[in-house]
Automatic annotation (TrEMBL), chain A:
Ligase in keyword set: no
Extent of the signal sequence: 1-20
Tree of life domain: Bacteria
Protein name per the record: Multicopper oxidase
GO MF assignments: copper ion binding; oxidoreductase activity
Keywords: Copper, Metal-binding, Oxidoreductase, Signal
Organism annotation: Marinobacter segnicrescens
A GO CC annotation given for this chain: periplasmic space
Domain Plastocyanin-like positions: 35-138, 219-318, 455-573
Automatic annotation (TrEMBL), chain B:
Protein name according to UniProt: Uncharacterized copper-binding protein, cupredoxin-like subfamily
PANTHER family: AURACYANIN-B, COPPER-RESISTANT CUPROPROTEIN COPI
Segment forming the signal sequence: 1-21
Entries under InterPro entries matching the protein: BlueCu_1, Cu-binding_ET, Cupredoxin
Domain Blue (type 1) copper positions: 54-177
Keyword Ligase: no
GO molecular function, one term: copper ion binding
Length: 593, 177
């Protein structure tokens, strides 16, 4: 179902008739071949990933899901706005779908863009139960393209989800191959001094984490549309065409840094919602996020879509080419990212003395690029709007730095200098484009056409993202799901959520059923998303217009974090008119992650 | 369009010296063949209305004769700042770097232009004014006209060079025949 002929014109012609689409999905045991290994998994209509579901804004869809497994299943329509009892979370939206049964979902399509669907039962999603959703808008898109491809990523692991969870619980660093060695201790000691190095190691030990904890699940093969790097999924194009790539990260645990050497990518959608277009050389896609980009290859040559995992332990690779069989060079993985003391910034009980001491150590270790980057980040991080914030100080700087400029040199310098305000200052995760160019930041995301009026939130709810890596427990405000009270919101209010990440891991927080208005400091232009990354040592705000009754899941989308307890039920009190949702009859039949 | 509105827009988007297309005469520009030259109102053969939306034009293609002088009534019907600029793809590419600078310095802020910032002296007597005769830069709701005499160069597009807009597809073809 990969559309190789998805011209805008064609799809517009095809979609002019109003229809209530009916679709059938079967949930099946399937074989997954990554090129590196073959394993049994779960898929839809006999394959993993499942089909690309193509809907049209304004239609009502009916989807018959037949469970051919010998266990409970469910399908969650990730990012879709729909009645809560169609959201597909066992124990919250409905009881789940029993073996042999067919459950019919029915809901109106009230949005457009790129989304995805996946099982919300046990570890069926990491085992392969996912697929893509493409929704054509009622009106025209605010951008143009001649051709489109879904580019759906995952991190396929040879172990089943159940086995991975058991291993992580038993030994949290089971899948962490990047641990620091005794040799590194001595080389650090000679570089940074023995005492600094000892202090550094002790601080990390206190945190029950290790510097290499960028990824707690390594040893996967990155897949694009179900194909491993050697199987090389290929999308064909005619030189000069504009191609829309719909990137979806359906990984269980892995963030990817994506680039296409030789091509600029213009980001036009994030999480299915149009954003003011921004051209980048590279972007990071969090687990469960989607980004739509437009590329325009002008030459008769192949281009590699290269997706390195954030911790550089693996990659996915695909190709855009004028002809089947053509391929371009595949870059080497860059050096593994290492967390720094800055990524511990959110940890309670860090004493400032040791922080200051460590800062120096860091600066010595890092390149000078980092240091100049840090200067700017403080500037950007503090102001409300990026643009306003750059005002005068920069103007002066421009005077000196050769106004004969406006040339390439000063432009690219400006780009490189900026560090991303959504990362802790000096963070080891701070992204950098491989070619030294522009790396997308959340701060670049501005709504193209804001869905909601900007207004003051009615209240703020603080959610500390917490965990104990040594016991592999993950929680919110120190309490894991099974011990937690639901979060209660009132229909009609606008809630401001304050995420404080007190762990060393990045958490992609996903609120079901209602939009997450990400605060990038752009006021009315703040973008709406369904998944919000919160990096280590940072605080991120989002606001939600509570405009859907019922009860919803709210969780970290890293599969094993959600299962370990970084998960909440959200109950909406009240509703439009008197249609108070009946939510108390749902049995807890299925798994909740 | 009222006269006062026109004057306001014209004052805001007044003269400056950018690297290209500022001249009144084609030929001799670094990028090869010229896109034409500013036209005289008396020579206008017809008026074409171009509406700017977020982020596309209506129409997305026009046809002109070599040497024809056209009055463009350009209207921004979107919610963001947009440009209407006549040039070759290479000229647009060059101009996009300047526009990026305007965004980075807060001159273009989503749906608003910071006029004070445009006037500011950047050193070397340059400013970030946007005033080439082949283009207009408009806030939402603004209208302005461009009178342009086309050459016989057929490699011409009208384009919005606000960062990202051209790349997203905000350009139109000029067919010269």
């Amino acid at each position: 179902m990969k559309s190789r002929l998805g011209s805008v014109l064609l799809s517009l012609l095809m979609s002019t008739s109003v229809m209530a689409g009916e679709y059938d999905l079967t949930v099946d045991r399937v074989e997954i071949d990554t090129g590196d290994f073959v394993k049994e998994g779960i898929g839809y209509n006999g394959a993993s990933p499942g089909p690309v579901m193509r809907f049209k804004e304004g239609e009502t869809v009916k989807i018959n899901v037949t469970n051919n497994l010998d266990e409970m299943t469910s399908i969650h329509w990730h990012g879709l706005i729909l009645p809560f009892n169609q959201d597909g979370v066992p124990g919250i939206s409905f009881p789940g779908i029993k073996p042999g049964e067919t459950f019919t979902y029915e809901f109106p399509i009230q949005q457009a863009g790129t989304y995805w669907f996946h099982s919300h039962s046990g570890f069926q999603e990491p085992d392969g139960a996912y697929g893509a959703i493409v929704i054509e808008p009622e009106g025209r898109e605010p951008f143009r393209y001649d051709r489109e491809f879904v580019v759906q990523l995952t991190d396929k692991h040879p172990h089943s989800g159940d086995r991975i969870m058991r291993n992580l619980k038993m030994m949290p660093d089971y899948y962490n191959r990047e641990q620091q060695t005794v040799g590194e201790f001595f080389s650090d000691a000679s570089k940074n001094g023995l005492m600094n190095t000892v202090r550094d190691r002790m601080a990390w030990g206190d945190m029950r984490m290790m510097k290499a904890d960028v990824e707690d699940l390594q040893g996967f093969t990155g897949l694009i549309n179900g194909k491993g790097p050697d199987q090389n999924w290929t999308g064909l194009f005619e030189p000069g065409e504009r191609i829309r790539l719909r990137f979806i990260n359906s990984s269980a645990m892995t963030y990817f840094d994506i680039r296409i050497p030789g091509l600029d990518m213009t980001v036009v959608q994030a999480d299915g919602n149009n954003v003011q277009p921004v051209s980048v050389d590279e972007f990071r896609i969090g687990v469960a996020e989607t980004y739509d980009v437009i590329v325009r290859p002008k030459d008769e040559q192949a281009y590699t879509i290269f997706a390195e995992s954030m911790g550089r332990s693996g990659y996915a690779r695909a190709t855009l080419a004028p002809e089947e069989g053509m391929e371009a060079a595949v870059p080497q993985l860059r050096e593994a990212a290492r967390l720094t003391m800055a990524d511990m910034g959110g940890m309670p009980g860090m004493d400032h003395g040791s922080m200051a001491g460590m800062d120096h150590g860091n600066m010595d270790m890092d390149s000078s690029e980092d240091m100049s980057g840090m200067d700017h980040s403080s500037m950007e991080g503090t102001d409300q709007s990026n643009m306003g914030g750059m005002d005068h100080s920069n103007m002066e700087a421009m005077d000196h730095s050769g106004m004969s400029g406006m040339d390439h040199g000063s432009m690219t310098m400006g780009k490189e200098d900026k560090s991303d305000p959504f990362y802790a200052k000096g963070s080891g995760l701070m992204p950098k484009a491989a070619n030294g160019g522009k790396f997308l930041s959340y701060a670049d995301l501005k709504a193209q056409d804001p869905l909601y009026e900007d207004r003051e939130p009615t209240r703020e709810i603080e959610l500390r993202l917490t965990g104990n890596m040594e016991r592999y427990t993950w929680s919110i405000n120190g309490v894991k799901y099974e011990d937690a009270d639901p979060i209660r919101l009132k229909y009609g209010e606008r809630v401001r959520f304050k995420f404080v990440n007190e762990t060393m891991m990045t958490h992609p927080m996903h609120l079901h059923g209602m939009w997450s208005i990400l605060d990038v400091g752009a006021g009315q232009w703040n973008p709406i998303k369904h998944t919000i990354n919160v990096n280590p040592g940072t605080t991120v705000y989002m606001e939600t217009e509570v405009d859907e009754p019922g009860q919803w899941a709210f969780h970290c989308h890293l599969s094993y974090h959600a299962a370990a307890g970084m998960f909440r039920k959200v109950i909406i009190e009240g509703g439009p008119d008197s249609t108070q949702a009946k939510t108390d009859v749902i049995a807890e039949d299925g798994g909740e992650a | 369009m009222t006269i006062s509105k026109f004057l306001v827009a014209a004052a805001a988007i007044s003269l400056s010296a950018t690297a290209f297309a500022a001249g009144t005469h084609g030929g001799g520009h670094g990028h090869g063949a010229a896109s034409g030259e500013p036209g005289k109102a008396s020579a206008v053969s017809r008026t074409i209305t171009v509406e700017m939306y977020d982020n596309y034009y209506e129409p997305e293609s026009i046809t002109v004769s070599p040497g024809e002088t056209v009055r463009f009534m350009v209207e921004n019907k979107g919610n963001l700042v947009h440009e209407f600029n006549i040039g070759t793809p290479e000229m647009h590419e060059g101009h996009q770097e300047e526009m990026m600078m305007m965004v980075e310095h807060g001159v273009i802020q989503g749906g608003r232009l910071n006029h004070d910032m445009m006037e500011m002296d950047m050193g070397n007597g340059q400013s970030m004014k946007h005033d080439d005769p082949n283009s207009v830069l408009l806030e939402p709701g603004q209208s302005q006209e461009v009178i342009w005499k086309f050459s016989d160069n057929s490699n011409i597009e009208f384009a919005c060079n606000v960062p990202g807009h051209y790349q997203a597809g905000m350009y139109g073809d000029v067919k010269v025949q």
